[in-house]
Amino acid sequence: MNRSIISLKNVSKLYHTKIDEIFAVKDINLNIEKGEFISLVGPSGCGKSTILSLISGLFPPTKGKIYIDGQEVTGPTRKIGYMLQQDYLLNWRTVEENILLGLEIQKRLTTKNRNQALHLLEEMGLTSYKDSHPNQLSGGMRQRVALVRTLATNPDILLLDEPFSALDYQTRLKLEDLVVETIHKHEKTAILVTHDISEAIAMSDRIVLLGKNPGHIKKVFNVPDPIRNSLPLKARNVPEFQNYFHLIWSEIEDDE
Hints:
The chain is α/β, with parallel strands linked by helices. Helices cover 37% and strands 25% of the residues.
């Protein structure tokens, strides 16, 4: 069996307030294999985004350990790319300059890496916009640029924190297909945080359902092959899809 690319071992995160101590997540144990697409779902306040921040090394767990490719996480690593709800594109930079930003920060802006980033932009259908500025683009186009910027540094793992939630429904569906195709093509491992159960089912290999007070893993669902082997838009038409949706929905309702 392959070694997990991501492992969380008895991970807890305790926040201190002026009057109390609150566990955001407690005793999280999770292994993710290379190439898997995992979604974290659950009610508000169950620690979904906290888990992403812990995996990324933005802050340490209060208890437990996190490993990336067998190495303990002690801070941010180049192995991880992070994509958020907001695109955070810099309006004074062109699209091309925005997608190269991570490479510049990491001092890895070589001719080869620049050409690879431009090739990713071409895959997203945005080559003709490389000299445009972000305020000239639609929301969906901006998120595609943000995805290219994230992929340009060639991370092994993508952390996706509700990257489609600010977009209209039609644009979301198109981007879901594009993101899944791109991640599979480039053999990335991905973790998606979403409140949208349909999105989680359509995009994922496994769904991790979190409960709250404190955040904990309540149940893990393996997405059936007929859904998992379809692109997200077509996956929604697979006969098992609605039954699977109601199964997860009922579990979340029990925790509200």
